[in-house]
Write a structure and sequence with these properties.
This protein has 97 residues and is an alpha+beta fold. The protein has a domain of 54 residues. The chain contains 1 helix and 3 strands, in the order E-E-E-H. Strands 2-1-3 form a 3-stranded antiparallel beta sheet. It is elongated, with a radius of gyration of 22 Å. Bound molecules: zinc ion. Zinc ion (ZN) binds next to loops.
Length: 97
């Protein structure tokens, strides 16, 4: 390499410590994912329980279950939680009687 362009690079005293957006939101101890697993996560069929890896760039809600044709939801998403909790409540209510 020719040309030395050293103009004192280490002069960044202040910095709000950027890149804090990604850290902590999700991903417990998966460091250095070289993009092999993509965005991660999975899409779930709430009807039959089919599960498939989430495709990057394609919202689960736009995917259809290959088994039963129902719309998929993102695993762990608010949608998923909502339906799950609703189901539990329904099951609970059904129990009596
Ligand atoms: Zn299904």
């Amino acid at each position: 390499m020719t040309g030395r362009n050293g103009n004192g690079g280490q002069r960044r005293a202040r910095g709000p410590g950027g890149a804090g957006d990604f850290v902590g939101a999700r991903g417990a101890g998966s460091r250095g994912c070289g993009g092999l697993m993509g965005a991660g996560g999975a899409c779930l069929c709430l009807r039959c329980g089919h599960r498939r890896p989430h495709r990057k760039g394609v919202p689960c809600l736009q995917e259809r279950c290959p088994e039963c044709g129902a719309v998929l939801v993102r695993e762990g998403s608010i949608h998923h939680q909502e339906v799950t909790s609703r189901r539990q409540t329904a099951a609970d209510a059904k129990n009596e009687g």
